[in-house]
Amino acid sequence: MALVRISKLFGQGRPVYSFEFFPPKDEAAADELLVTVGELQAAHSPDFISVTYGAGGSTRSRTLECVTRIQKTLGITAMAHLACMGHTKAEIGEVARGLVAGGIENILALRGDPPKSGAAVLDPEMSHATDLIRYLKGNFDVDIGGACYPEVHLEAASADDDLRWAKEKVACGARFLITQLFFDTDDYFSYVEKARAVGIMVPIIPGIMPITNAGQPERFKKLGGSKIPVGLQARIDKYREEPAIVMAIGMEHAILQCKALLAGGAPGLHFYTLNKSHATRCILAALR
User: Fold this and answer.
1) pLDDT-derived band at 119, boundaries 50, 70, 90
2) Which site from 102, 123, 145, 244 is most exposed, i.e. has the minimal number of CB atoms within 10 Å?
3) SS in 3 state form for 202-264?
4) Whose CA is closest to 137, among 91, 160, 169?
5) What are 223-236's pLDDT values in tens digits?
6) Interatomic CA distance for residues 258 and 286, integer angstroms
7) Cα–Cα distance for residue pair 253/70, rounded to 1 Å
8) Which of 41-45, 122-126, 142-146 has the highest mean pLDDT?
9) Residue ranges of domains in the chain
């Protein structure tokens, strides 16, 4: 598969499929991840993969190593996440130069979260995702993506304010947006409609994460504000002590969600894999 700029993948008359991974903790985990990505590639030929970036740059070197290794070894287009929280502009420049030198041409620009230690460098020139997008656009020849939130970012003053920031990301140079995970398909289509109404015309890719255990819904709600449809939560609660059934329920919901999204015109699907291939492979097999 030839390496491409991600924004060029859209508008070709077919859905764009992508997978997201987090950087491995050690060399053994890195080897295992390469096998996982290779299995997904062989079975489903994803259009691109992405590798996340830890709070405050805590996985900085591992993200760079992982994303470049996957792209060079497997020949699949890879996108690096890059977060500006906790970095100075000079540090961001150093990271970006390392990515470009490693052959990475696609970056998902994020504000990110402060490190758990609470100690973070706060550069006023790098305090928002828009600052990072603007900087990358002005200094590097890369394709830039941004994040958006169908259920509204937890820190946003309002839904309208959140949408304003998404529009600003595009104005600064983001050529596509990937959503936070969600479970109500109507929330995605409502968000896209509002986004188009305010002039956001770039592809908005839905982010998908199937529920695979009973504890996930509460964590999703706490970390990102994602709500779980009442009927889905009731089914999970009913079979809380039967993990296999809970996973089957989560997978069924994800498959139906993906089918509805594609039928409604979503440009593709971005899967949050948690570095495991089984759930994603099952969903894609059902879709295809």
Assistant:
1) low
2) 244
3) CCEEEEECCCCCCCHHHHHHHHHCCCCCHHHHHHHHHCCCCHHHHHHHHHHHHHHHHHHHHHC
4) 169
5) 888 899 999 999 99
6) 10
7) 30
8) 142-146
9) 15-287
What percentage of the chain carries pLDDT values higher than 90? 74
70-96 tens-digit pLDDT: 999 999 999 999 999 888 999 999 999
Q: Annotated active-site positions, please?
A: 20
**Which residues are within 8 A (CB) of 238 and not within 5 positions of it... i.e. 6 or more apart?**
none
Written in H, E and C, the secondary structure of the chain is CCCCCHHHHCCCCCCEEEEEECCCCCHHHHHHHHHHHHHHHHHHCCCEEEECCCHHHCCHHHHHHHHHHHHHHHCCCEEEEEECCECCHHHHHHHHHHHHHCCCCEEEEECCCCCCCCCCECCHHHCCHHHHHHHHHHHCCCEEEEEECCCCCCCCCCHHHHHHHHHHHHHHCCCEEEEEECCCHHHHHHHHHHHHHCCCCCCEEEEECCCCCCCHHHHHHHHHCCCCCHHHHHHHHHCCCCHHHHHHHHHHHHHHHHHHHHHCCCCEEEEECCCCCHHHHHHHHHHC
Report the C-alpha gap between 105 and 141 in whole angstroms.
Answer: 7
First to last CA, the chain: 19
